[in-house]
Amino acid sequence: MSKKSKWKTGKEIIEEEGIKEIEFFDDYVRKGLQPHNKLGRPISPSNILKPDLKGKMSAEKRHRSASIEDPIRDTMENIRRTFDPILRKKELEDSWNVFELPKDDSKAVSVLRKLRDSLYNKDDIKNFRAPLDSEKEKKKPAKKGMRESTKTKLEVQRVAKEIYDKHSEFHPEIDSYKKMAKRKDIKDAGGKHYQSSLQKWISEVAPDWAKKPGIRPKKK
Q1: What is the pLDDT of residues 20-54, one digit of tens each?
Q2: Which end of the chain is more exposed for a tag (fewer CB within 10 A), N or C?
Q3: What are the helix and strand counts (H, E) for the chain?
């Protein structure tokens, strides 16, 4: 198919989706993706099955025409008796959403191949795929967001680092993690809800001079 064409073949869709012909029939055609012939006209189940019916009817006509007694009457009666159930069933099944594949394997394969070779409007494909893609998106596992405690930890550490960066050496107001944990700006960063973890969080961003043990000298 040309890139400028508004059509795609069933084969192209099957290859793009990585599915089998039977899956294309069940999940696409039967659920509303309309097949078209080479003239761009919609194809119904009866269009695909019609050649077989025509063949049967032609054979029946040839057979009955040889009859000595009123061949036309006998032929019409035989056709009515033979084909009415088929035609009634065809009327019921002339919609892809209720159509069932023939039980005969060779005929079923023939239908699938014809659907594979049929044309499908790109706009129809796009509209058909939209709810499928939306459903797939819904089924994707939700991405786990950052835990609240992790957010608070990062914010507390950011504030603590800013405080330490203002002091290149010992300062009595921040000479221990305990004092740092009691600061208002640390608590406002969310630390008041995680008192048991504050000192550990602060220690992870503290400069080397703040990590030295022992009594701090008073700042002159």
Answers
A1: 999 999 999 998 899 999 999 999 998 887 654 44
A2: C
A3: 11, 2
